[in-house]
Amino acid sequence: MNRVIRRIFAAVFGVLILGTLVGCVGSAAESPAGTIGLLLPEAGVSRYETSDRPVFEDVVAKRCPECDLLYANAGSSAARQQEQAEAMLARGVDVIVIDAVDTIAAESIVVEASRHGADVIAYDRFIDHPDVDIYVSFDSELIGRVQADAVVAALPSDTDEVPGLLLVHGSPTDPNAAALRAGVHQALEGANVEILGEFEAPAWSSTQAQEWVSGQLTQFPGRVDGIVAANDALAGGAIAALKAAGVDPVPPVSGQDGELSAIQRIVDGNQLMTVAKATDDQARTAAEIAVRLLRGEDPAAPSMILGIPSFVLAPTTVEQGDIERVIVQGRVHSLEAICTPDYADACVRVGLIDKEIQ
């Protein structure tokens, strides 16, 4: 379906399903240059509304002020995301950027977008479908290796017992979680550790991760020496289970995303590390590509993943000694946000603030 026909289709039917959109910027009728749609998966992880969305919107506004931008957040519902995508397509969106709630379910969005003649950018989470035009994300397999390597390096070396690990993976419907898991197993291959148990957290649920870790601590009392958690939310759930079980000190636990609560746990010594991803750069890259696709350009991707042109960004490891350089100087979180009264003493101990500033 060509762009003119899509515009007619939008004019007739778009108003009927506009209510499914969480929010939008501008109006398709006011935008002869074309329309870009951004679909984000949830609001529970702070980065989507505080980083991804505003940076994406800012880049589009600067690079293509005459473009229309539609936005919707699915609130962790794959069905709602499907409705939002259909509403955008009905309004004649030309390029749709989707961070899928469920990457398998999102394949139907890709098919529908292709039927409407819209370009598709899989954002943050890989969608394994040949009609995806571009994939923009971070190297998840590398992140998994980095997480496992950090935990193994932090395990006690003054014991004859083989250290025991728990592996808390992400959602079984997320290809990124599968890549993370593969990276973890690559790093642990040949390592002197015993994998006590593995768990795939449905929808990246920290609550279910906490419940599973609690059960493992009962099953393996005194045996859990480290936990490789796929992201900071899962790490938070695992650490809550350790604390509830009275495990002290907390063994090394990995994370990912550089969330504020995780940085505070690292400062306080309750989480070993996180993997910071420059989500601003990721959103900026996706927005730039979206504008170029809208203009009929063909961005040259540096790599291919399962036949899909891919822009894969490098992550950054963050432990206690990296917080000032990576998190504070990188303007991910400010000292004031990190070193609240509850964490002021810990911030002094690790050298983030002076006693006079406290």
UniProtKB/TrEMBL annotation:
Superkingdom of origin organism: Bacteria
InterPro entries assigned to the protein according to its UniProt record, in alphabetical order: Bact_Solute-Bind_Prot2, Peripla_BP_I, SBP_2_dom
Compartment(s): Cell envelope
Entry-linked Gene3D superfamilies: 3.40.50.2300
Matches recorded under SUPFAM superfamilies: Periplasmic binding protein-like I (SSF53822)
PROSITE patterns in the record: PROKAR_LIPOPROTEIN (PS51257)
Domain (Periplasmic binding protein): residue spans on this chain: 36-297
Keywords from the named record: Signal
Keyword Signal: yes
Keyword Methyltransferase: no
The protein's name: Substrate-binding domain-containing protein
Organism whose genome encodes this protein: Microbacterium marmarense
